[in-house]
Specification:
The protein is mostly beta strands. The protein has one helix and ten strands, in the order H-E-E-E-E-E-E-E-E-E-E. Strands 1, 2, 3, 4, 7, 8, 9 and 10 form an eight-stranded mixed β-sheet that branches. Strand 3 and strand 4 form a beta hairpin. The longest helix has 6 residues, at about 1-5.
Length: about 120
Amino acid sequence: MASARIRAGAHVYLPAFGSDGRIDLIYVQDGNAVRVQCKSACRIGGSLRFWTCSNTANIPLLYTGEIDQFGVYSADTEMVYLVPAAEVPSRACSLRLAPTGNGQQARVRWAHDFELGPP
């Protein structure tokens, strides 16, 4: 995620201490700091799916107000996606790679709309 963001021209900052923080990296865009939580996605059918909450001791913890974006890596597509935290459901999010089986177009999150590039 960090290398893809750097290639896109951003200054990226990584936490130096404390691996238990909710922010994995910060980058600067237009003079503003953007807080990112990094996730891995798995391919399920024609979609990529990633969790939008952490789950410690079987208690889901939301990222609301703590991060600005999810940086999502998919080994299946070998791509990184930047997804605004305000636009995702509270538990999990799907990014469509292929058209839906029923032809639905409304409220579909297309992976290519969030694509940043290779890691």
